[in-house]
Design a protein that fits this description.
With 309 residues, this protein is an alpha+beta fold. It has 2 domains: 195 residues, no CATH class; 100 residues, Alpha-Beta Plaits, CATH 3.30.70.3040. It is built from 11 helices and 4 strands; from the N terminus they run H-H-E-H-E-H-H-E-H-E-H-H-H-H-H. A 4-stranded antiparallel β-sheet has the order 2-3-1-4. The protein starts with a helix and ends with a helix.
């Protein structure tokens, strides 16, 4: 029993050693496999980065979207305070800003101070033609419809002049659609690339197996277990994955350094380079896991198919 216990670590050591030897011996083939895997991992990483940018861009835009409720000039203070209270208590509402008639007039005057025609007309009127306004922010983009329906159909319809949700609706819907489409598209591209990488790795390993077919035949003749024959190839696949992850991370360094300020200015989101440095280990961990899984699985399938023959 003691003997077999010692035998397993020795066998593992030998499998790892043979895998490393084969990794170096297959020079060009190894390089080709790693390059294809780097491309796949690069795409996976790019998908993570673009998702960060898209999400932050959407969050910024969400922050700018709100629904304005223009109240009739005839609305009295009691009705208005009841409306503000009711809206604030809605579970979908994130915040309500109340702009009084005087504040609305002051804002309007400031906005059109260069237009003498408007300012003269206002002075001639003598009376404030503007009603109070409520600016409502929802907790989530999808909640604006419910808030708008509440306002339009509710008991407060008599004091509401108009709600500008319908004008913003198109923008809100488009934003959500763009985000969903880009996420789906990115995922699709990544899956296709992972499949191509797995195919290339698979065929590369089959080539390596074909080159060593005599060696494998002898090992099978002397009764070597399938796991012992498969071991070195799986080790080789894992090494491909590890190296590909390292190379992909190295490539991202100058790229994010160059793109960082540009994306920050364009998307108004995080600087990509800052994100890369802050999340270095988690990004590397993800790419490493994907690379190792890809390398090991394609090797395992390739050898398994060969051993069945």
């Amino acid at each position: 029993m003691e003997h077999s216990h010692n035998h397993t670590p020795t066998m593992l050591r030998r499998m790892v050693k043979n895998g490393i030897v084969a990794f170096w011996r297959n020079g060009w083939v190894t390089l080709a496999t790693i390059l294809i895997m780097v491309l796949t991992l690069f795409m996976a990483g790019s998908l993570l980065f673009s998702n960060v940018l898209l999400t932050s861009a959407l969050t910024n835009l969400e922050g700018k979207v709100d629904v304005s409720v223009y109240l009739k000039t005839s609305a009295d203070d009691k009705e208005i305070s009841n409306l503000v209270k009711s809206v604030s208590e809605l579970p979908e509402v994130g915040g309500v800003e109340y702009v009084s008639r005087d504040a609305a007039l002051a804002q309007f005057k400031e906005k059109h101070q260069d237009n003498s025609l408007i300012t003269r007309s206002l002075d001639e009127l003598g009376d404030n033609p503007l009603g109070a306004t409520l600016n409502i922010k929802a907790k989530d983009l999808s909640k604006y419809e419910a808030i708008s329906n509440f306002l339009e159909a509710g008991v407060f319809a008599s004091i509401i002049d108009r709600v500008n949700y319908r004008q913003n609706q198109l923008v809100i819907d488009r934003l959500s659609a763009i985000l969903q489409a880009s996420r789906r598209g990115g995922l699709g591209i990544s899956l296709v690339l992972a499949f191509i990488a797995a195919l290339v790795a698979f065929n590369t390993i089959r080539l390596a197996i074909y080159t060593n077919r005599e060696e494998i035949s002898i090992m099978r003749l002397v009764g070597a277990k399938n796991s012992y024959i498969q071991g070195p190839y799986i080790v080789e696949g894992i090494l491909h994955g590890i190296l590909a992850a390292v190379v992909a991370m190295v490539v991202f360094y100058p790229l994010t350094l160059w793109l960082g300020p540009k994306t920050e200015a364009f998307f108004g989101g995080p600087n990509l380079f800052d994100y890369y440095t802050a999340h270095f280990f988690s990004l590397f961990g993800i790419l490493l896991m994907v690379g190792v899984a890809l390398g090991a699985t394609s090797s395992w399938i390739a050898v398994k198919r060969y051993l069945k023959v």
